[in-house]
Amino acid sequence: MDFNSLVEYIKSEGCRVRLYKKKKYIHGTAVGTFDVTDNGPIIVMALKDESAIKLAGTLLHEYGHFLQWQDGFLPTIEAICDPYSLLHYWLRGKDYTNAELETGRNAMLAIEWDAEIRGNQLGLDLEIDGFNSDKYMRMAIGYMLGIKYSWKKRVDWKRSIPQKYITLEDWSTEKLFSPLTKNEQSLCKKKLRLFNP
Predict the structure, then answer these.
(1) What is the predicted pLDDT for the residue at 197?
(2) Domain count across the chain
(3) Which residue range(s) make up the domain with 130?
(4) In angstroms, rounded to a whole number, what is the distance separating the alpha carbons of residues 12 and 5?
(5) Residue 77: inside a domain, yes or no?
């Protein structure tokens, strides 16, 4: 299945898709986003300067968020804590307790990792053109490290660690929620492109 067919498939499943060919980012930092508006669920993506396979991976990830919303996973987590708003305001100077920050961090990691697992499986099941599960999961791990670093160092970043720097390893729940190791912190410091270092 090619990118355009994937877009049509997602639309047929009940999620709107809006593509911006001339934008590089959505909301300042993201290539893709998922949201639920008064008009229903929508995936929005910036297409400029991205390869078809990278765009397909991002679209699969965002579709994973749609499936989370559809099956109740996303609303359940966000009822406990809206990690995206919490991180947004914390990065801009609002203070929170350590417990609130830990809850936000773990909620975001749970949501994003679940979307990555769903996206990877969808890439395989839908036989996406050029899809490589190992590369996808290395990018996913790089994304998780970026999230963990952002919550640890109070910094925002615009690009995950390139997958060539990530070793493919089994990410258990313990690994996902554990603190960054010194090696992971060093990798993040060297390879994440930060907005406010």
Answers:
(1) 41
(2) 1
(3) 51-194
(4) 10
(5) yes
